[in-house]
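Thread: "does anyone have the structure for this chain?"

Original post by V.I.:
We have the sequence but no experimental structure in hand. Need at least a predicted one for the grant figures.
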Amino acid sequence: MDHLKGKTIVLSGTFSAFSRNEAATVLKACGARVTGSISGKTDALITGKNPGLSKLISAKKHDVVILNEDDLHDILKGLALPGDLLQEEPEEVERQTTPIPYEEEIRDGKKTTYYPNSKQIHIVGEFKKGLREGSWKEYWPNGQMKQDYGWKDGLKDGVEYDWRDDAIQVCEGQNKKHQRQGKWVYWHRNGEYKQSYQYKAGKTFGDYIWNGEDGKPKGRGAFEDGKRVGRWEWWEDKVHHHTITHYENGQRDGANEVFYKNGQLAYSVRYEDGHKNGPFLGCV
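Reply from O.Q.:
Generated one for you, tokens below.
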């Protein structure tokens, strides 16, 4: 019986009906190659109780079929395997970020961890079929909220908040299937508005705003499909106070002008498709 001829299989965890060595012996008798680590050539990972976290992560990374002990019984009986294991290679399709378990033991229900030698809660969240689900909260050692992220099917999905240990909010935004969406805002330690971005399908677009801790502008510009476009301006506290650069499809294109604090032009250079293309004009 060689219905597994040419297939590479990895075993992980503890099986209730037999040892891992016994399972490996029979799988080899069916023509399979049984190895101890996951690679791009692995066809399936068969898991028992408490499978290794590194193997699960590696299997997700390499798109390896993950089977359980019931599937293993079917294999040893000579029955067809579920899923894609005995089928032709599937057509390559675009995939979302792959969710992975948060800990080695696949579990359901509430998860609470504490700081060492303390009753202070560190992390509170919930698993569903071994993947993060709903609101996950993390706290600083002083009890102040540190993070509050929404999750769905093991992917960031929903609101995302971050705070410093002094309760000053750092960040606020929204995720959809592990990709940033909508407006994301950041604040300085003193509570002043710092930066804001717009996201669509995980890529920046629209206006970009950056302010200093004193509330004065530090940067202004715009994105399109994750790339800088149009007029960008920066303000600095050093010798060159003000810079104006033009972008097209993420590359410098047009005039690049730098000014002193008094407003006098320091120098100007023209760019085309990201390369200098024109005279350097400097002022003393």
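V.I.: this helps a lot. The CA atoms of residues 57 and 137 lie 23 Å apart.
O.Q.: and Helices lie at 20-29, 53-61, 69-76.
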